[in-house]
Amino acid sequence: xxxxxxxxxxxxxxxxxxxxxxxxxxxxxxxxxxxxxxxxxxxxxxxxxxxxxxxxxxxxxxxxxxxxxxxxxxxxxxxxxxxxxxxxxxxxxxxxxxxxxxxxxxxxxxxxxxxxxxxxxxxxxxxxxxxxxxxxxxxxxxxxxxxxxxxxxxxxxxxxxxxxxxxxxxxxxxxxxxxxxxxxxxxxxxxxxxxxxxxxxxxxxxxxxxxxxxxxxxxxxxxxxxxxxxxxxxxxxxxxxxxxxxxxxxxxxxxxxxxxxxxxxxxxxxxxxxxxxxxxxxxxxxxxxxxxxxxxxxxxxxxxxxxxxxxxxxxxxxxxxxxxxxxxxxxxxxxxxxxxxxxxxxxxxxxxxxxxxxxxxxxxxxxxxxxxxxxxxxxxxxxxxxxxxxxxxxxxxxxxxxxxxxxxxxxxxxxxxxxxxxxxxxxxxxxxxxxxxxxxxxxxxxxxxxxxxxxxxxxxxxxxxxxxxxxxxxxxxxxxxxxxxxxxxxxxxxxxxxxxxxxxxxxxxxxxxxxxxxxxxxxxxxxxxxxxxxxxxxxxxxxxxxxxxxxxxxxxxxxxxxxxxxxxxxxxxxxxxxxxxxxxxxxxxxxxxxxxxxxxxxxxxxxxxxxxxx
Length: 614
Known about the structure:
Oligomer: single chain
Mean pLDDT: 93
């Protein structure tokens, strides 16, 4: 089974990208296998997302058979491209280092993947609130056979969410014969592990030495609290966006260094489109980076009073990528126009905002790493090569946007920037370590510098593994093994039109969520629940108001009260799902309710049938 999962993952994450790389960027021994692999994975995500959009615009749902044909064509295109457009043969002395580097990259990726799976070893379903609607979207894609325009039949809501991860997860589920929830969990962790590879790609694009770039990737995977902690929130779309973003940033640097290279420009445009379709917040990160890259050229143009073509070329390719994704971006903008806003700089900030930011950047081990990374930021800003100075400027912007007093763009809160600070921190920290070890080597002996680098790297990685081995916050675990058993029983024994009362509680803003495994009834088994997954906020205003009002009542009922029966009548509920100790309504008062029949009770989970209304 593990080989099936591995094969399915390789098909989904590599084959489309290899086809594109074969024609756009044939393998060159001067480029490392790890860089090539990072680019291929990022391109796979981009091409898959663009193919999904194309079929959506054409009204075509290819399904599993159509997807198999498409992957077969990609495989044929990859083989053909590498045979006829690949680089010329190179000597054995160049093959051996490339082979060694490729094996080393494979070992590191395997270790990172194992660690990510180990960190979620106790989860039976993907964690927290986001995972519920991610799984629902994957379920809809699988049932439709392609990218949908709405979430019917589960929610009569339009669909304009960033979908790159969901298409990949649906394809992975189809190839591996997994349920949507398990595909989300396993592929989500694999993609999270691949962020480290993308960080390595960006570090090399910034011309950081190979050993330091490798340490940046390993610290991302083992040392920093983020992005590993994304698993506790189910932030799989952000993980996917970052896997594409960092190679896109490296590609932007290449376009800037080699103006007129059309292949490099087209590759950057495709990755830009992938960023746009994988995570809307990542678009902001990329735009900020392009803004920083354009500043030196704009400054020269102002000084010389002439047009500087380098920033225009980079902007042109970025614009081309945006055009490729524009049909979906326009739909998303129209559906979320009410959330578009710019909030200015605030002089008065609550202490709770600062406390939340500090806790978010924790624990203490992470604070220490970020503190040293801040020294690396100062060093890079003062004395680094030009590309790294520009990266330091981008890092400073990311840091500013993470502050509660700074500008806020659209719906993107400061904390969303803060949880991505690990990326600049990893690169700036290893730059500091590399410079310090180099200085030590110049004053003593070069071998001592190498030894110091190995020692520091080993200590940091071992410390990080120890601190991050148990990453899941138990407060965010909605579904336990008892819930999973109950969900399976309900799926096997209840009619498909069952409608469930579940306990509810406020979540963010005016959104409500479930408190236990009952919240998973819709994405796991297709049942209606009193509080649907978060995309219910895409319904019309009257439907949202009704759900919120009933959810508010549900958060207060204690038994078979008039409020309980009002909820049952208005929502036309047929069943009740209770997990002992979670939510306001518990099983003890329901056991004595004459209109309820106990159908299932195991390990604290109870399911009742509503026989008749009062």
